[in-house]
Amino acid sequence: MHLKEPMLNGRNPFFEMMPHWFLLPSIIIATSATIIASQALISGSYTLISEAMNLNFWPRVTVRQPSDIKGQIYIPSVNAILWIGCVLMILYFHSSSNMEAAYGFSITVAMMMTTVLLNYYLLYRLKWNRWLVALIIGVFAIIEISFFIANVAKIRERWMFLFFELFIFLTMYTWYYARKINNRLVRFSDLGKYTPQLIELSKDDAIPKFSTHLIYLTKANNRTQIEEKVIRSIFSKKPKRADVYWFVHIDRTEEPYTLSYDVTELVDDKIIKVTIHLGFRIQPKTELYFKKIVLDLVANKELNLHIRPDGSTRYNKEPDFKFIVIEKFLSVENEFALRDGILLKSYFMLKGLGQSDEKAFGLDKSDVVVEHVPLVYQSAQNIELKRNH
Prior knowledge:
Elements: H1 13-16, H2 23-54, H3 76-93, H4 96-125, H5 130-154, H6 162-184, E1 188-190, H7 195-203, E2 209-217, E3 225-227, H8 228-235, E4 241-252, E5 259-267, E6 271-278, H9 286-299, E7 321-330, H10 338-353, H11 357-361, E8 368-375
Parallel strand pairs: 2-4, 2-7, 4-6, 7-8
Antiparallel strand pairs: 1-3, 5-6
């Protein structure tokens, strides 16, 4: 007769381990320990996803700071994933006895990954002797592989939980390698090379004015550099004429409440680079900060607010701002290898599920123009077209 739980004269040995007088306190202690462990799992998940985003292993999602300590964070989307995953696991396993092998398997895999990282650290960071490292890692490997084989043998009937772990792995793999492909196509140029053209474009009355103040968000840390896609956005197809061209870079600091900025005028009242330093505790409100910076520059007589030639400033004295957000999409010109095609298509699907640039940077949609540009990674080659006579 097979029993799911071992019994001792009709009594469960789990409860018989404790003296009768200590049974209720022990249950309370065990329950409290379980709650603490679950909170540690949740907090650890937030930390891991936050670090994964910093290392470009996870799509950008909303992160909230409940305190002034940088490590204390709350990620709503991760909380939802954990909740859904917990419910699905309960529905799938039904009882804790069915979960034993899955739990053991997960712990064993975590131990093995730690051993792999230890091997890398000893070899390439501390530069230890390879034979000594092999001896140390070998001891851990023998024990952990034994546990791994034992747990794999037990999960043959309850193996579908691996899809949850596979989902996390594929998300991280896709995001990391697709970002590497995408970043290979990012080019930076010296903004000074385009200064004469920008001045000429700004003064060219034959081209309709796009905006009085045209603002681009840039990832370039160097104050004199800019992405080539920004330059193409300004000059290609319909050139964007403006009185002032602004290039804004957001710099996240290690302090919780940093809120400062630097201004570099490459050309007075014409081409200006702004770096806004934001603490990790502050939710970005880029448009609000930018408009405050403009007012400060005007008050200090470092910037002239341009009067619109159409006379519309008589009715609205507020400056005319336009923020340009450049979004990429996969061009139909691409002819992918199987792996690259799957990676990039999955990447853009995940990007669509993540946080938009407007929301991430705190931009008012009424002042934002989203510009979609094609991403051409592997252009189709050897196209043969025959003309019919």
